[in-house]
TrEMBL record:
Organism this protein belongs to: Roseospirillum parvum
Catalytic activity: L-methionyl-[protein] + a quinone + H2O = L-methionyl-(S)-S-oxide-[protein] + a quinol; L-methionyl-[protein] + a quinone + H2O = L-methionyl-(R)-S-oxide-[protein] + a quinol
Name under which the protein is recorded: Protein-methionine-sulfoxide reductase catalytic subunit MsrP
Pfam families tied to this protein: Oxidored_molyb
Keywords tagged on the record: Metal-binding, Molybdenum, Oxidoreductase, Signal
Gene expressing this chain: msrP
The Oxidoreductase molybdopterin-binding domain, residue ranges: 108-264
Claim: Cell wall biogenesis/degradation is one of the keywords in the record: no
GO biological process, one term: protein repair
Organism taxonomic ancestry: Bacteria, Pseudomonadati, Pseudomonadota, Alphaproteobacteria, Rhodospirillales
Cofactor: how and how many bound: Binds 1 Mo-molybdopterin (Mo-MPT) cofactor per subunit.
Length: 326
């Protein structure tokens, strides 16, 4: 039988839940879902933030939970299991397989970690992420995540608006875009595990997108610090855009004048653009974007314009041709 070799940018769009995920879910069910009681309550749309959150979401054997002021955004849809969120990942620095990051990212060493913010700012600064966590009020935000490969999840992130960080460095009037860069490190991200794309992983946003209230710097999920495979210790989450915009393990944020060339656009510009707004009406050249597979569900769902965040973000694009600027 001929072996079909995919090019690195040929992201698979599987119609069925991968078998490994079923295995992971069974393991999880056996372990008992007690520790997820709080999040399950949020998922069913009942009640608000429960004061004793820290105790309720404790996950023995994992890193300490974070201090969170409250849940500021949510969607009225079931949360994706912690197990699925943290074993079905895209993080090419640790391999191209969905389970590779969970398997390989133990080498990352996310503490200590510094994040430099530079470029067109009045006060360039290098933040120690531990200090950032101590000084920045953290919120829970339950967002949909829609990958360009047509699968999706609902994830309870912990984090703070990127705008809060930008305020601290005072962007200059000449800054028009924000460029993000992930760590690349041969010891902590051994080259043998990496998928063959170019590194560091780079992403970018227009400054108004970066300043939008929905744009989050996430430092945790399910009430705890991020596991390495999810982009520890700090990653971007832009919920109305395809998942590849949500860059992981960020070490540098630069305010710039020109539109940054993001990793996936550089790899295959006919398939991945700069904007990458979730749009059911603009198909990927190799598959439809009209529907998606919600991880953990059997039937496909309709994909929503701007991933369901249109009311909040459509105005950003009123002068933009979304077919041309995919
Ligand atoms: N540094 C880095 N960030 C990355 C990626 C990556 O390969 N490397 N993959 C992106 C893609 S394609 C998606 S869908 C999301 C997946 O985030 P998750 O694994 O937490 O669900 O991370 C994005 N951020
Ligand atoms: Mo993705």
């Amino acid at each position: 039988m001929p072996v079909h070799r995919r090019s690195p940018w040929s992201l698979p769009d599987s119609e069925v839940t991968p078998p490994a995920l079923f295995r992971a879910r069974r393991r999880f069910l056996k372990a008992g879902a007690g520790s997820l009681a709080l999040s399950a309550g949020l998922a069913s749309g009942l009640g608000g933030w429960v004061g004793a959150a820290r105790a309720a979401v404790e996950r023995p054997g994992k890193l300490a939970p974070l201090e969170v002021t409250g849940t500021t955004h949510r969607v009225d849809e079931a949360l994706t299991d912690y197990e699925a969120v943290t074993t079905y990942n895209n993080f090419y620095e640790f391999g191209a397989g969905k389970e590779d990051p969970a398997e390989n990212a133990h080498t990352l060493k996310p503490r200590p970690w510094t994040l430099s913010v530079d470029g067109l700012v009045a006060r360039p600064r290098t933040f120690d992420v531990a200090d950032l966590l101590a000084t920045q009020p953290l919120e829970e935000r339950i967002y949909r995540l829609r990958c360009v490969e047509a699968w999706s999840m609902v994830i309870p992130w912990i984090g703070f608006p990127l705008a809060a960080l930008l305020d601290r460095v005072e962007p200059l009037g000449s800054a028009r875009y924000v460029r993000f860069e992930s760590l690349i490190d041969d010891e902590r991200m051994p080259p043998r595990n990496r998928a063959p794309i170019s590194y560091p992983y780079v992403e970018g946003l227009r400054l108004d997108e970066a300043r939008h209230d929905l744009t989050l710097l996430a430092v945790g999920l399910y009430g705890e610090v991020l596991p390495n495979q999810s982009g520890a210790p700090i990653r971007l989450v832009v919920p109305w855009k395809y998942g590849f915009k949500s860059i992981k393990s960020v070490v540098r944020i630069s305010l710039v004048e020109d539109r940054p060339l993001n990793t996936w656009q550089a790899l295959q510009p006919s398939e991945y653009g700069f904007y990458a707004n979730v749009n059911p009406e603009v198909d990927h050249p190799r598959w439809s974007q009209a529907r998606e597979r919600r991880i953990g569900e059997f039937f496909r769902r309709e994909t929503l314009m701007f991933n369901g965040y249109g009311e909040a973000v459509a105005d950003l694009y009123r002068d933009l041709d979304l077919t041309k600027w995919y």
